[in-house]
Design brief:
Distance between the termini: 24 Å
Helix content: over 70%
CATH superfamily: MFS general substrate transporter like domains
CATH architecture: Up-down Bundle
Number of helices: 17
Number of strands: 0
CATH class: Mainly Alpha
Largest sheet: none
Order of helices and strands: HHHHHHHHHHHHHHHHH
Oligomer: single chain
Strand content: under 5%
Length: 404
């Protein structure tokens, strides 16, 4: 089967604009992540400082989860995205100013990352909830797969490009991210406003509706929480600057390569799923993917060879994409439009916890027991979580069709 895009999906002008903005956003975030990680570790030489980068980006998503989800359901999701990317543009400009001035005050970087986290806390649920409004329901599965494909493509290019630009100077890398965020503002602004179902007046019942909805759906709750704890324990990306500088000795360009490899694996799996979505035994496939993710994390943690490290990260990314696809499709298909923002906000908190909070966990454990033991222990923990969740969430394990 051809790997060309499905024409029917791309007939939507707004969906095409959304995907372009999504690509540039992911590109900018990854470029900025590489630049911030290298800059902070260069200033501090402390793995815990890298963990604090993830924590600063994650805390706003938790603190604002009830508000951001309700905003995505009550207000124009497109306008929320425009406002959020204006804020990300401002924070990227601030990081550019710090890099240009040569300031060694890391607290300024953390402060800007907190503001950046606030903007992403509002943008993530609005963006997730907007996708089903852009294509017919029968095309939603393909749209989700292509959405993931575009994201992963940028996640491949972003770290490598960020690492190369960093060779030219930190200000060049941060400046490139700022330009991409500016383009996102323009693209979202060109999209048409869309009608959406709105919830009733704001009450504690409506604020907590997203949490209660997820809790009442064992398959969704199991998929979201499995991804949370598996990546929380198994996430090694926060420690890649340590591997690049101290273990593999490959410099910022090598750091960009290492950050890109999980996305290469994820992209190939996403392209496959865009053409051949899972038709049966979907829950079991998710558990198999998480188990492979844990095993690859252990392999990466023990590797001292760049080629082997890249291979394990490649496998890790491909395995994780299976989990991402199952979780995303379950959430989108099983959630009514009037609640998509609030459910997406809770989902974003879980994703943020697995990624940004996972970075803090990895940095803290590495500071306590060492980098390599921290990654290996995390991979073992992922395998244990996978086994426990198979026992605790049979509704997910026996889920056959995602759309049925």
């Amino acid at each position: 089967m051809s790997l060309l895009p499905a024409p029917a999906v791309f007939q939507s002008r707004d969906f095409s604009l959304y995907l372009t903005a999504r690509f540039l956003s992911a590109l900018a975030i990854q470029m900025q992540n590489v630049a911030v990680g290298w800059l902070v570790y260069d200033l501090t030489r402390d793995p815990l400082a890298l963990g604090l980068v993830g924590l600063a980006s994650f805390l706003p998503a938790v603190a604002l989860a009830l508000v951001t989800g309700h905003a995505a359901d009550r207000y124009d999701r497109r306008r929320i995205l425009v406002a959020c990317y204006l804020v990300t543009l401002a924070t990227a400009t601030g990081l550019l100013a710090i890099a240009t001035s040569g300031s060694g005050q890391t607290w300024l970087i953390y402060a800007l990352l907190l503001i950046f986290g606030v903007s992403r806390a509002f943008a993530n649920p609005a963006g997730q909830a907007l996708v089903p409004n852009l294509v017919p329901k029968e095309q939603l599965g393909i749209a989700i797969a292509w959405n993931s494909t575009v994201w992963q493509t940028a996640t491949i290019a972003g770290p490598a490009l960020g690492g190369l630009l960093y060779y030219l100077g930190a200000s060049v890398a941060f400046g490139g991210a700022a330009v991409c965020f500016l383009a996102c503002c323009v693209l979202f602004g060109l999209m048409r406003s869309r009608a959406q179902a709105k919830p009733s007046d704001v009450t504690w019942e409506t604020l907590l509706a997203g949490i209660r909805f997820i809790r009442s759906r064992p398959a969704i709750f199991g998929a979201i929480s499995l991804d949370l704890f598996a990546v929380l324990l198994g996430g090694a990306t926060a420690l890649l600057p340590v591997y690049a500088r101290d273990i593999l000795n490959v410099g910022p360009g090598g750091l960009g390569l290492l950050r890109s490899m999980p996305a290469v694996g994820a992209l190939l799996v996403a392209l496959w799923l865009a053409q051949r979505p899972l038709q049966s035994r979907s829950g079991l496939r998710m558990f198999q993917g998480v188990a492979l993710f844990g095993a690859a994390t252990i392999g990466f943690g023990l590797s001292t060879n760049l080629v082997l490290s890249c291979l394990f990260l490649f496998i890790l990314g491909g395995a994780d994409m299976i989990s991402v696809f199952v979780r995303s499709t379950l959430v989108q298909f099983d959630t009514p439009d009037a609640m998509r923002g609030r459910v997406a906000a809770v989902n974003s908190v879980f994703i943020g916890a697995s990624n940004e909070l996972g970075e803090f966990e990895s940095g803290a454990v590495a500071a306590a027991i060492g980098t390599v033991p921290a990654v290996v222990v995390g991979g073992v923990g992922t395998l244990l979580v996978c086994g426990l969740w198979m026992r605790w969430f049979p509704a997910l394990r026996y889920r056959d069709r995602l759309t049925g």
